[in-house]
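I would love for you to help me understand the pair of lines that follows before we discuss the fold together.
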Amino acid sequence: MINQKNLFYFLIIFPMLLFGTTANSGSTIVYFATEMWPGEGIPRFKAKQDIIPFSEPRKDSKKVEGLQINKGEMIEFTQTLFKSVKTGTVTISRTIQFEATNYGTTNYLSKHDYYNTGENLDLTLNEGDVLTVFMPRAEGHLFFKFKGEVYSGLCEPCGEADFKTEWWLKIEQNLKSGWILKDSTSIEDLGRSF
């Protein structure tokens, strides 16, 4: 049974740690997040400059003392967090149907839940239906919300949406851990391994 203290932690504190706060803190609002990264294969990265990781996957969190990725060093990550920080909206112009996976009403999808939950179905969208688009997944699939539920699927109209994401990589070295933001300024993308 959940007591009031645990309920407070689960409903208030845990989301703040994961997504950050928004009131006057400069934090970015997160609409959806997943442990899945965009694209297929395992991404490989190299540091373009010295990088000191953040303590949490948020730009307003503290830097981790004694943890640094040096310029030219391969970045070995243990976890990722892919966040939707600006959603896009798409209005369907004609009836379409495609295969999709329904993950229900959630704003967070773990790697485990991505592979082990969700209902595969043929999704029909009618003219005038409005979708909130979060982010790309892989092979043309995107994460989007329709009628309050999160889906992943090859939704062609969703590709026209104007959304913004942040991709965070968790680093663990010498018994310390931190998060770095995957961006083109500090991190070089070396392709994927399959």
Observations:
- The mean pLDDT is 88.
- The helical segments are 4-19, 111-116.
- The chain has two helices and 14 strands.
